[in-house]
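Worked problem 6 (solution included).
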Amino acid sequence: MPSQKHQVPLRIIQNQPALAPFLLKKVLGYELPAHTETTFTSSHLGNCTPKEWTSDEAVVLRDGTQAVLAIAVERQDGRDKDKRLSWPAYLSVLHGRLECPAVLIVLCPDRALASWCAQPMRSTVRSTMTMYWPVSTRPPGRSWRA
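Solution. The predicted structure is:
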């Protein structure tokens, strides 16, 4: 069972969901996209329809027994939005399994496809943001609205 220390910050966000984008913008300097509301979505990250995440190849760089970099390698022959949406999952799975940073190489037959594949995936840009937040404090006179 999670401790009170673990649960209190989460309960605050449950009561004030606007706190999450506030922290991203005001504390961490993250540029928020234009939006009209802040709502909850399921925090359960299971997949009702099991999906197997399999890259074409995967390579790991080690320093002794320590994994220092995982590389997912994909061969892409055409524009495939669904395939592109799977790439962040590949990186997350490799990162979680090997406990090291993970990157993706996409091998393409031409420059146009390579350019399409190279477009940044917003979900992987600065997606992990860490901050120290003493639970008992709140900036004086500040609302949680981003």
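Discussion: The chain has two domains: 1-30+129-146, 53-122.
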